[in-house]
Amino acid sequence: MLKFVVLLSAAACVYAASAPYTTKYDNINLDEILANDRLVSSYIKCLLDEGTCTPDGAELKSVLPDALKTSCTSCSQKQRSGSKRIFKFLIEKKPEEWAKLEQKYDPEGTYKTKYQAELKALNVNAPVEEAAAPVVAPVDTSAKSETSAKVEAEAKPVETKSESENKTPSH
After folding, report:
1. What torsion do the CA atoms of 99, 61, 21, 74 make, to the nearest 10 degrees?
2. pLDDT at site 169
3. Nearest-angstrom CA–CA distance, 61 and 109
4. Which residue stretches does the UniProt record annotate as biased composition, category Basic and acidic residues (predicted)?
5. How do the residues of the chain divide into helix, strand and coil, expressed in percent and rounded to 5?
6. Buried residues in 92-109 as b, exposed as e (16+ CB within 10 A)
7. Is the pLDDT confidence value at 64 over 80?
8. Residue 26 lies inside a defined structural domain of this protein
9. Is the residue at 146 inside a domain?
C-alpha cells in the first residue's frame, strides 16, 4: 500500500509548489504497483473517502488538489512521466474509479479541459460509452386493428357445411 501512496504522491507532487518534491520514490516499480488491484483499490477508496487511509494516503489526499492546480511544477521528470502512466492506467483500466476521482477532484471539469491535450498525446484509450438504446414504445400485440383482423379472416380457409358434417369427433 505504501508503494501506491508513494506513486500517487509523486504523481500528485505531494509537497508545496515552491519547493521541489522529494525524489526518494522516483525509482519505484510502477508496473508492480499497478498490477496489484487490491493496493490500487485501497488507495482509490482513501482518496474518495470510502475507506481508511494510511498516513501517506492521508497526506496525498490533502495535497492532491494543489498538485492538480499547479500542474505538478515542482515534480521531477520521473514523477511527471509516472503521473501520466497512472492517469492512463486509471482511465483505461479503472474507468469507473477514474470517473469518481474526477467527480471529487474536478467536479467542474477544469482540469479535464486543462490536461486534455496531454491525455490525447498519451494515446489514452478511454472506454467508449455505449450509445443509449433508442426509446421505443411497446406495441400491444393483443389488440388487433380492424385491418389486421380483416386480413387474417381473409387468409383463413372457409369451412363449408358439408366439410363440417364429415368431421368425426375424436375420442
Report:
1. 50
2. 56
3. 19
4. 147-171
5. 55, 0, 45
6. eebeebbebbeeebbeee
7. no
8. yes
9. no
